[in-house]
Each structure stands twice: as C-alpha cells, then as structure tokens.
Amino acid sequence: MDGNVTGEIGVGLLLLVGITHSDTEGELDWMVKKVANLRVFNDAEGKMNLALGDVDGSVLAISQFTLYGDAKKGNRPSYIDAARPEQAEPLYDQFCEKLSVAIGKPVRKGVFGAHMHVELTNDGPVTIMLER
Predict the structure, then answer these.
(1) 66 classed as catalytic
(2) Best label site of 12, 41, 86, 95, fewest CB within 10 Å?
(3) Is 81 among the domain residues?
(4) Residues 25-51 pLDDT 10s
(5) Which pTM does this prediction carry?
C-alpha cells in the first residue's frame, strides 16, 4: 500500500454502494433514509437500538459495481446489471450528498471506478444488504 488514504472513519458504517440501470432518485431517497436511521449500534444494554446520529457515527461509501456481478452461468461473472459509469457516478455522488445532509456531516468516499485497497475493522457481527 502506498499510504495515500482517500477516506477513513472511526465509529460508523462502511457502505459498498452498487447502482443498477433502474435506480432513480426515489431509490436514493429511500436508501438515505434507511441508512441514516438504521439501528445497528448497541445501546447501554448491548441491544442493537442506536442509529448513526445516536453514536455520532460517520459513513465511508465505496462505489462497487461488482455487487451486481452474476455468476450463475459459466465461471466469469457478468456485470450487465451494473449501471454504466456515466449513469452510476452521478447517482453515487447524489446519494453521498443526500446522506451527508441527513446525518449532518460529510460522507467520506472512495474514488469512483478506481482500484482501491479497502480495510475494515468490523466491530461486531453485522453485515446487511439493503435493496429496495
């Protein structure tokens, strides 16, 4: 690793964001509301009952077209369900901007379309796939 860090957070959520052809502003708005209010952080009794705002959490959003990889046929995944960059990048940027407003702080981002090294220290057993 070359030491260039594009974005990092402490307590919060690492989002791998995939955009498909049919995604619209409606999906973005739904996802922003869902992510901002998702209660996945432990309260004083150890129950997942707190949202990002309750723990002063941050967000790191990484664009990830490979989430739409389909390997049902053959041995090489097809990414035909992933939106093309000219559609996906503006939606990804808009999602991050809207989420920043919703949580009251900047969303840290990776570099769209870049080959990145992403490190995660997962503090707990929670990984959730959200799709409208």
Answers:
(1) yes
(2) 86
(3) yes
(4) 999 999 999 999 999 999 999 999 999
(5) 0.90
